């Protein structure tokens, strides 16, 4: 039976799960819904997305989905690649970075910056007004960006290009959709000029097949379409 992902292309957490399924070549269908719709509540009492369904298995939190997808991948003898490393120390490291992505980065970059910016833009506020209104949020965002930047800088100094080592892990999959949204906003300048290692990591991930396969319908996609109409 094909897995079903209930969620939206625009949702960062949904994109994480789709990135994993694409990476591991696990077929799935996307049942598209935004949060807090009748469909979202049908599968998740909190109205959040995504939900992952596989027959009788229904999972409403991405951490549980991660564990389940790893389980599917381990059962698939033909698959060589894994998103979770083998040793306990490496797994703990990945778990920490997933938590940083899902909590600090999501809260300070998506909830505090990306969503209010988009809402102010749609209300027709000027760029000056938007940047003034976001001033304190951007200070907090800078702390998160700075911490990720210094981690990536020290990883790069020992030749490691991904968040948790030399290959893509779940940590990259949780972090990337957040940066894909942020990098499509004027706030990309903060990353580009103040966090060069983070910017390089973002560009490296953007260039992967899985990033391209899940680009359509994202905030970055709709903004690039809007800009090309102008
Ligand atoms: N802890 C949840 C977070 C999921 C989440 O916050 N999803 C967002 C969409 S990216 C959502 O449903 N937002 C609506 C809301 O917070 O009310 C998970 O890991 O699955």
TrEMBL record:
InterPro entries: EF-GSTs (IPR050802), Glutathione-S-Trfase_C-like (IPR010987), Glutathione-S-Trfase_C_sf (IPR036282), Glutathione_S-Trfase (IPR040079), Glutathione_S-Trfase_N (IPR004045), GST_C (IPR004046), Thioredoxin-like_sf (IPR036249)
Domain GST C-terminal: start-end pairs: 87-230
PROSITE patterns, A to Z: GST_CTER (PS50405), GST_NTER (PS50404)
Domain GST N-terminal, chain residue ranges per copy: 1-77
Swiss-Prot/TrEMBL GO biological process terms: translational elongation
A GO cellular component entry from the record: nucleus
Name this protein carries in UniProt: Glutathione S-transferase
The species this protein was found in: Mortierella isabellina (Filamentous fungus)
